[in-house]
Amino acid sequence: MKYKTFTLDKFQEDSINAIENNYSVVVSAPTGSGKTLIAEYIIDKHKDDDKRIIYTAPIKALSNQKYRDFSKEYGEQKVGLMTGDIVINPHAKILIMTTEVYRNMAVSQDGELANVAYVIFDEIHYINDPERGYVWEESIIYSLETVRFLCLSATIPNAVEFSNWIQAIKKHEVKTVKATKRNVPLEKSFYDYELGITTLEKIRQAKQIPNVQKSHGKKKWRRKREPTPSHVELIRELGKDKTPCLFFHFSRRLCQENALELSRKNLFQKNPEIMSFVNEKLRTAPFEINKLKSTQTLKETLQQGIGFHHAGLLPILKEIVEELFTAGKINVLYVTETFAVGINMPAKTVCFYSLRKYDGRSFRNLNTKEYFQIAGRAGRRGIDKIGYVVTMISRNGFNYNEIRSVTDKDMAPIQSQFKLSINSVLNLIERHTPVEIEKILRLSFFSYQKFGRKYADIPAKVLMARYNSVVRKLNKYKYIVDGKLTGKGYFSSKIYADEIAMGEIFATDFVKNIDEYQILLLLAALVYEHRETTEFKREFKSEKQKELWKLLINNEFLKREKKFDNLNKVGVFIHPVYNGKTFFEVINLTNLQEGDIIRIYAQILDRIGQIKKAATDSEVITKMENCQGIIQKVLEGIWLV
């Protein structure tokens, strides 16, 4: 079977046959095997009828890339984008969105979903994510009965169990399609400071040989700390015949430092075409961008086809790197984990600087799913016969069994991370009877995994424990009275984070006593996540801030909200722009990277959008529109989709 110019693999053909029968499909296949082609088939199938297609992605970077790709393929007028902070053409036939946006629409039974034929969940294995996994479960549970799903995943051993769950709760046929063979096979190896590119077994053998040191003429056997491997020497050993290379780091700082270090070794020739391209791309950008340290560093490294890419960069700089990589102008690109999910750009070789990462709570080894997601970027279909994967290994703290368990096989099953949010409970109460609520709570993947097809027999006490706990909290703060939503409750049913804090501020008279500056301070405090390494050159204390504190401590809930402890800090993001200063003046007040500051403003815009939809008071809506204008102005010229 052929589609477009491609002869389809069996798993692609099986998936398309299932789609022709109006089944849902769960596709489990290695990274880079061509799963997106199935999604494109669905879009083409419905392009001339009255049905709509929704394509969801786990992160904004991937949503943005799919929006660009599909806009080129099908025309901008047919494609829309919804990522919370950005809304483009929301009534389009093909809608690209983050999974959170779709979940919110499904939970609230948004009328825009009435004519949807298929929802495509890219990277469905994100259901494993401890913080966000519930979003994928709720997206499926709350979808209309008429909707079909295409669930695209990296290899998962329990794909059949997942399919059976969907079939059990949605009452339609779900086909499981598996592929285990990669189009471009992977050759995995490891890099040791002494042995070079080698096997894990040989590193283990070398590690077992004790070091001999002399002390007063006598031999003394003891372990000493051994040198760490060098990324420069690894690139040197790989040689030019194994580029382009994606070099994965779990540190933005090391991404930049390593790219700069490698560029100063002059292993690659300078390419004048690259600098011509970079200068042309930056010609119409704000002139201040050229003065940024990140821009200057990137310009220096790119001359030799060496780049770096991470979330801390300005969008224009990331776009430059992506376009150069796609054009084959980059030899080595140092990237963070986001690149493996957000950007579909394979290379001949993938290198790991380390197998350990900080996950926001602690340092840990990668799990197999994370390792193979990244490793799967090695090997370009139709170009390479083999994709090379090389992991740098330090003999210090070397653990053979741990490393092998991560890199051997991708055998980690997906597990439910279901949890009830305040928003979920408010919407359940608003739209369903108590009997219906209990029935819906039985539909979770968690219930199915724990009780199998007997999920209907789960004791109500077990099932409703979390739900009842949330209900008690909502009763306490008067979001529910006599089993029904109050005005605050209705407002917060349309808010998707910090529901009670947002309700206390924007669904009461609290908001009438504060101005736009104070509103922006509160929103910044809610979205800002402080790290010990973050520094601020000054604090912007004011009478308005003191007045705000007095209002906060008079509210039973808000006075306990720890996020407002950061009010003094977040003035850095609000005071300058409220007084007409530019984005580049804000940058100089903190050591946060440009991309992180953009993210804060984007999240503020997202919250403003939620409040505008939830509010019924025209005065509140006007204030939010004023706030929106202030933030949009500071992002002019630097924020790209």
What is the number of helical segments per DSSP (H or I, 4+ residues)?
27
Low-confidence stretches: 212-216
Strand content: 5-15%
Average residue-wise pLDDT: 93
CATH class of the domain at 422-634: Mainly Alpha
The share of residues in helices is 40-55%
- The gross shape turns out to be globular
Helix- and strand-based class? Answer: alpha/beta
Strand order of the largest sheet: 6-5-7-4-8-9-3-10
Q: What's the end-to-end separation, in Å?
A: 36 Å
Describe the structure.
This protein is of the alpha/beta class and 641 residues long. Among the domains are: 2-178, P-loop containing nucleotide triphosphate hydrolases (Rossmann fold, 3-Layer(aba) Sandwich), CATH 3.40.50; 422-634, Sec63 N-terminal domain-like fold, CATH 1.10.3380.30. The chain contains 27 helices and 23 strands. Strands 6-5-7-4-8-9-3-10 form an eight-stranded mixed β-sheet, sandwiched between helices. It has a seven-stranded mixed β-sheet with strand order 12-11-21-18-15-17-16, with helices on both faces. β16 (306-309), α12 (315-326) and β17 (332-335) form a beta-alpha-beta unit. The two termini are 36 Å apart. The relative contact order is 0.09. Mean pLDDT is 93; it is low at 212-216.
